[in-house]
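Kindly inspect this one:
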Amino acid sequence: MKIVIYGAGGHGKVIYDAVISEGKNEVIGFIDDGKNKGENILDCEILGGKKDLEKLIKEGKIEGIIVAFADVTGANKLREKFNHEFKSIGLKVVGVIHPMAIISNYASIHPTAQILAGAMISVGSKIGEGTIVNHYAKVDHDCNIGNYVHLAPNATLCGNVSVNNYSYIGASSSIKEKIKIGKSVIVGMGSAVINDVLDFRRVIGVPAKEK
């Protein structure tokens, strides 16, 4: 399928590399409202901004899109917003699974999830819509990861952990087995979470405490 990547920042580059490595879809270019049309990122051209998408669809140049937004504050909900918006104009929202990810045959991955190089997802675990499992993040057995979550690089979730929608699990943080992480939670980088975390909380530290 011919696709574009929406967002040509750092995560956009990572997604481009993952899509090329996966070999399932053909990247026609980037869409980015903050960059100049015709500019090249890696070896891929900026085709314009969001306003140019409908023209590209009508010309038959693109069929799908992947949204590459991944920062801590607000990006999870932005991915959801744009995914719904792009579906409404006729684009298929796609995900990516890097071939260097390790995924159990008994795990369930939503087709719009982004699973990057080195990620590990174990038996019985579920990864929801629009969720990012970043480089070397590890999801042990029977975890339930909701929609539009971001597991940052090297985050580790032990068995039977649940993470509700829109939450962000910081780089190199660890979540103890059977812990429940609520909705729209931020877990700071390097934290050790040993107790459940309620919705909309921010926790950080070893052990993690509310900020």
